[in-house]
Design a protein that fits this description.
With about 80 residues, the chain is mostly beta strands. About 0% of the residues lie in helices and about 30% in strands.
Amino acid sequence: MKHYDCKFYLATDVFKGMCKRDKTSINADDNSCQNFEKAQKCRHCLNFSYTSEDLGTCMGRYDAYPEMNAVTCKEFTT
């Protein structure tokens, strides 16, 4: 997994971000650290299904991107 897959990753631009735990600057696509916790993203949800490589649907009704954060989704299920 990469830093951008972690729930503690905060993007500051396209290529880098900050760790919310220790406030260090990190590259988005570097390998994750020992504090990694999987972020709540659409691609990790059982309600998500791919329709193409970069797009899918949520519950077969709504368009959704696999990398979209789902932290406020009431239907998120793992």
